[in-house]
Amino acid sequence: MKATAVAHPNIALVKYWGKRDEALILPHQSSLSVTLAPLSVRTSVEFGAGADAVRINGEPAKAQELARVIAAIDLVRAQVRGLGGAVVDSQGE
Fold it and tell me: pLDDT tens digits, the chain, 93 residues: what are they?
C-alpha cells in the first residue's frame, strides 16, 4: 500500500488568539496567512515487508527525525493491522 501527499508552506501573518464570544465561537481577531504555492513538500509512505526507513531530501533521517516519523507511523499501525515496515520518502522544494 502506498500513499503520497503534497503540501505547500503556509505562514501566519496574524494569528488567532482566543475567542471574543465563547457562545458564538467568534475569534478575538481574525487570522491572516499566505501560502507559498511555488514551494512544496511531497511525502510518500509505502508499507510492505522489511524494516522502517525514512529519507528526507534523499538522505537517511537523523535519529530525532526518524523517531518522530516512526511515532506517527506507529499511530497508523495501531489502527490498521498487518501493515509491515514503512518506507517514507519526503522531498522539499
Answer: 899 999 999 998 877 778 888 888 888 877 888 999 899 999 999 999 899 999 999 999 999 999 999 999 999 999 998 999 999 999 998
Separation CA 86–CA 30 (nearest Å): 39
Architecture per CATH, domain 2-92, reads as 2-Layer Sandwich (3.30)
Whole-angstrom Cα distance, residue 72 to residue 50? 18
Domain range annotation of the chain: 2-92
Instruction: Give dist(CA 13, CA 25) in Å, integer.
Output: 21
Q: Is 44 exposed, middle or buried (0-12, 13-18, 19+ CB in 10 A)?
A: middle
* Predicted structure pTM score: 0.76
* β-strand pairing of 2-7 with 41-48: antiparallel
